[in-house]
Design goal:
Blueprint (H helix, E strand, L loop, with lengths): L1 E6 L2 E4 L4 E9 L5 E8 L6 E6 L6 E3 L7 E6 L4 E6 L8 E9 L12 E2 L3 E6 L1
Parallel strand pairs: 2-11
Antiparallel strand pairs: 1-3, 3-8, 4-5, 4-9, 5-6, 7-8, 9-10, 9-11
Length: 124
């Protein structure tokens, strides 16, 4: 089992940057692909970015491509989501999730464990 703790959210102005962190504990974090998802009020949860368990493959939603960057540091059992040029439509509750020995999958059902979420609010 893996426990995930996501952090780093906050209130920023449009155009600013924010870095989210996902800390894993329990089973070997390096055996898991890590994904970031988000859910805005009244909307369904949507995929944002993912990185494979080996860290060689990354996938991004079209809406964040070129602005967001996902990375991981297996030695620290952490994954990160660097968010640049933030827009008001990026406002949501962001979750990290872990999928056992997966590629950088966008499929919610592939993820076994989820963090509690960290709020990102972008004011325009």
């Amino acid at each position: 089992q893996v426990q995930l703790e996501d952090s780093g959210g906050g209130l920023v102005q449009a155009g600013a940057s924010l870095s989210l962190s996902c800390s894993g504990s329990g089973r070997s974090f390096s055996d898991y692909a890590v994904g970031w998802f988000r859910q805005a009020p009244g909307k369904e949860r949507e995929f944002v970015a993912a990185i494979s368990w080996f860290g060689l493959t990354r996938t991004y939603a079209d809406s964040v491509k070129g602005r967001f960057d996902i990375s991981r540091d297996n030695a620290k059992n952490r994954a990160y989501l660097q968010m640049n040029s933030l827009k008001s439509e990026d406002t949501a509750l962001y979750y990290c999730a872990a999928a056992y020995r997966r590629s950088a999958t966008m499929t919610t059902e592939h993820y076994d464990y989820w963090g509690q979420g960290t709020q990102v609010t972008v004011s325009s």
